[in-house]
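Bug #77: duplicate submission created two jobs. Keeping one. Sequence:
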Amino acid sequence: MVLTVRTWPRRLVARPWLLGFVPINAATSGFGVALPLLILIVLHGSWTDVAIAATLFNAAVILSSVAWGHLSDRYPLRRLFLVVNFGGYALLYLLLGQIHSLLALYAIYTVIGLIAPAGASASNLLILEKFTEAERATAFASFQEMSMIGSVVGLLVGYFWTLANDALLSLLYVLAAMAAVSAVAIWFGVKDPTRSLTTAQVARHPESLFSRIRISASFHIAIPFFPRRPSLRGGPIRRFRVWAREELHHELPLVFAASFLFSLSGNLFNISYTPYLVSVGLAASSIFLVNFSNNFVQTLLFPLSGGLATRFGSDRLVQRATYVRALGYLATAGFTFFVVARSGAFAENLVLFGVLGGAIAVYTTASSLMLFRGLEGRDAGSLLGVNSALGGVAAVAGAGLSAVLAEFGSFRLVFLVAAGSLLVSLPLWTAASVAYVRRKYGRGTPPAPPLPGPQRASEASAVAKPN
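Kept job's structure:
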């Protein structure tokens, strides 16, 4: 199976209407940082309150993803779903600018979680339906670029806004305006396609799926992918046991388990990180800049990740990226042992969070390729539904565990637990690589030798089957 997951477009914008996704990504990335600051600084909440809000949001995202996926299949109204998504963000951001209690914030943030998946299926299906097979690689690469450019712009807007007046509530009005711009741009700039596809088509197209499972720079989670409605009839435990026996000698369960631990650690760390930065005395503008370093390095390295996977192999890159993330979490835990000046805390976190951003960019591409190759000749829709469900459980569990540790533990403990989860996942990635080699080549047959340098370089523009 040849995979053509491109991470850099031949043209920056495959169609002008894709520019409509820049303001919404700017709005959501700025909001992802502004929300915990709103809880901690404006409403005088605690780390526990941030974790509770994240738990409610993640639970709402998981539940509503199933419904929005079904609605996308039943009603091919891509433009309407996107406008509901973007316009809903604009309205809810405006409402958040008026709140004065944590309970109201919980309610509104939960509603944001309910509408967050509305645009995920719609945007992917819109591109699949609007572009021919030959154009889709460039189209999805452009779509990813709009997301990354928007996220960087949104964080810069947050930085300069809070640097100038330190007014978080008024920043929400700016974010609402950007979300509204995207809603208007999509409504007037895009027409619903004449043909319609289903969410199962996304599962069978590597690049469209890749754009779905990439970690969101806005909310630090991947919007779940449910290509089919889960059956609620009898026998789910029996079916799971049959599936587990069939998959016992396949690498996919190991990939699922390792991905679960990675997602769990990421959610646990990210939810606690902003409260930690506030606790060491960083101003709101400095926290925006720290997050900017993470997204900026992602933007720089993400286009190179496909070529790196081709050159070094996705298995090796996954392990290296996971190891770097674990070291970053351990370093953050180490910071808690020392009392440093505010300027020192800003500098060390600026550099460290940037390194973590680079690791997630490389990890996302490499782990996706390991997942894709295990789906060859299999029911991709069902298997991806399982993987997505595990990712959703990891998101809720990470948020819930963060709330528990916020009440009874410390930032240091959180960062150590997050690092431990990553270190535990490393042997699982190794075992997945071994299982793949055995399945592909047999126990006694070594894999084919790597390609020579010139030939390898010639294939760097398209991600092929990893070693």
